[in-house]
């Protein structure tokens, strides 16, 4: 049977379809060429808007008001200038055209031979941690391609890794702290010791970002910080961790530094603080810094369990109720503090029941600063029978201090943390660790491991802070040394002396300013002058 010829429409349809596609492609290319400037400007406006949104998000909240005022002022000036709006539109279109231009894909610079060897070493060291025998296509294997595992990397001038992005398989247990700690320890050791590394685990994307942190400033001296009542600056941290900065003076210069601010008072969720460290790590410096800030708005009672006399500069100052170094004075002062806490609670409760505001004598904050209180507890245990442990007198201020306006700050060493008692550990939700510490010690005190590697050698006042359930922050305490210490520099001594309130003396005595007394003389002055105000306060509390 002879085959019938195909209809004309079917035989010529494919050619017409091809011709139609070519016409549509030509029309699209022509339209793209004609509308290319408009597309470029639109893309540039979108990029400028995204950059402005990022700038607004990165701006601290305390600086957004001045930024809005500056932008409004610029818009007003442009609107009043002749031809201002037209020039502004032309400038905006030019900036959008520049931002929206077609950018060539950035080609990553090829690493040198030494950099390649370092990356290969890191890759081979990570193979036992990120590979299993059951993986059919392992990302990590001996002799494998390291460039697939490290998509981003940067080196400093010394040839060491400063930034590294590490991809890892999905079966790695990145939710277990032990597994993460092993990888972090390996990377910090292989990338270069003596530096601090920040580890950002992206569990959804299976990627770890390692960044070398810049050292925190250690040259910031004690000074008046711009804070509200109830805010205390513990120290300074990284700018990426907090959304606030404080204007500080450093000699003749002024700079903005991100602070670690601890808020106390009735609405505080962390009303008490515990600082732990080894001798010479800066815990006493932290207590002196807190005392100088507190004396602006409240009263303090200092108990120096170590008996070193480092708080002799506070003796007799306005707002300083007592500085106790002995067991008897400490017991008397803490007994009065417990009675004062109860008195404030009763007065505030009575005023609330009557519908009145709290009395004025309950509004002024009271701070109890204790340095090494377990040393006094050891003396009480070995002394006369029936002597009460000073730590047992802190239960009332710790449990009810927030409602009564009483704040407790303790500084202790690592070897005596277990002797503080359950009440201290339960109610001191603000924690600070200063000096070198192991990851286990940091996790025990702070309740969570830091996202950075603790260096082996740190300056005094350097450590970590955690307020309640917040993140673990790096911390550098401002330099607040003992002004009576011979090793203190003149600049730091003058900075501390300027912050001290005036010394209050009896009317029949001439004010005598001690000029660098020795430790024995300072201890005698502390014992003699500190016992009188506490005894007077205790008698007043018993009479009430």
UniProtKB/TrEMBL annotation:
Stretches that traverse the bilayer: 67-98
Residue ranges, annotated region (Disordered): 497-544
One Gene Ontology molecular-function label: DNA binding
Superkingdom field: Bacteria
Binding site for ATP: 277-284
Composition skew (Low complexity), residue ranges: 518-544
Signal sequence extent: none
Alphabetized UniProt keyword annotations: ATP-binding, Membrane, Nucleotide-binding, Transmembrane, Transmembrane helix
InterPro entries: FtsK_dom, P-loop_NTPase
Domain FtsK: 257-443
The keyword Ubl conjugation is assigned to this record: no
Protein's name according to its UniProt entry: FtsK domain-containing protein
Organism: Streptomyces glaucescens
């Amino acid at each position: 049977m002879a085959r019938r010829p195909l209809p004309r429409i079917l035989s010529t349809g494919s050619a017409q379809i091809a011709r139609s596609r070519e016409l549509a492609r030509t029309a699209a290319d022509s339209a793209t060429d004609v509308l290319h400037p408009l597309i470029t400007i639109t893309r540039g406006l979108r990029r400028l808007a995204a950059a402005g949104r990022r700038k607004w998000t990165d701006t601290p909240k305390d600086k957004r008001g001045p930024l809005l005022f500056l932008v409004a002022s610029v818009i007003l000036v442009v609107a009043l200038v002749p031809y201002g709006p037209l020039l502004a539109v032309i400038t905006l279109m030019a900036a959008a055209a520049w931002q929206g231009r077609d950018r060539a894909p950035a080609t990553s610079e090829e690493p040198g031979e030494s950099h390649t060897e370092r990356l290969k070493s890191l890759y081979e060291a990570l193979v036992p941690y990120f590979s299993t025998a059951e993986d059919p296509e392992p990302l990590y294997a001996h002799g494998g391609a390291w460039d697939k595992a490290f998509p981003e990397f940067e080196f400093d001038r010394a040839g060491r890794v400063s930034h590294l992005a590490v991809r890892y398989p999905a079966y790695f247990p990145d939710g277990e702290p032990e597994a993460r700690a092993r990888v972090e320890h390996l990377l910090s050791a292989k990338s270069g010791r003596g530096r601090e590394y920040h580890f950002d685990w992206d569990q959804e994307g299976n990627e770890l970002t390692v960044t070398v942190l810049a050292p925190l400033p250690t040259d910031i001296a004690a000074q008046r910080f711009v804070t509200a009542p109830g805010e205390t600056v513990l120290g300074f941290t990284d700018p990426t961790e907090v959304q606030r900065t404080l204007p500080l003076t450093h000699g003749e210069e002024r700079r903005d530094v991100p602070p670690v601010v601890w808020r106390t008072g009735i609405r505080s969720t962390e009303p008490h603080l515990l600082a732990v460290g080894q001798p010479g790590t800066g815990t006493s410096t932290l207590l002196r810094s807190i005392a100088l800030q507190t004396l602006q708005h409240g009263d303090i009672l200092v108990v120096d369990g170590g008996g070193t006399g480092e708080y002799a500069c506070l003796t007799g100052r306005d707002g300083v109720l007592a500085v106790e170094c002995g067991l008897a004075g400490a017991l008397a002062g803490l007994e009065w503090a417990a009675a004062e806490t109860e008195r404030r609670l009763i007065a505030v409760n009575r005023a609330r029941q009557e519908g009145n505001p709290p009395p004025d004598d309950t509004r002024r904050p009271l701070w109890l600063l204790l340095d090494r209180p377990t040393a006094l507890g050891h003396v009480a245990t070995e002394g006369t029978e029936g002597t009460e442990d000073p730590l047992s007198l802190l239960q009332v201020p710790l449990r009810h201090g927030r409602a009564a306006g009483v704040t407790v700050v303790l500084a202790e060493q690592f070897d005596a943390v277990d002797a503080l008692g359950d009440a201290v550990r339960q109610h001191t939700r603000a924690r600070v660790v200063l000096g070198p510490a192991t990851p286990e010690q940091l996790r025990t005190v702070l309740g969570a491991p830091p996202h950075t590697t603790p260096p082996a050698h740190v300056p005094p006042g350097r450590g970590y802070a955690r307020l309640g359930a917040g993140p673990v922050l790096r911390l550098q305490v401002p330099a607040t040394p003992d002004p009576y210490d011979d090793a203190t520099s003149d600049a730091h001594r003058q900075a501390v002396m300027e912050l001290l309130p005036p010394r209050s003396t009896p009317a029949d005595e001439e004010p005598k300013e001690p000029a660098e007394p020795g430790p024995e003389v300072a201890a005698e002055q502390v014992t003699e002058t500190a016992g009188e105000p506490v005894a007077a306060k205790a008698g007043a509390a018993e009479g009430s």
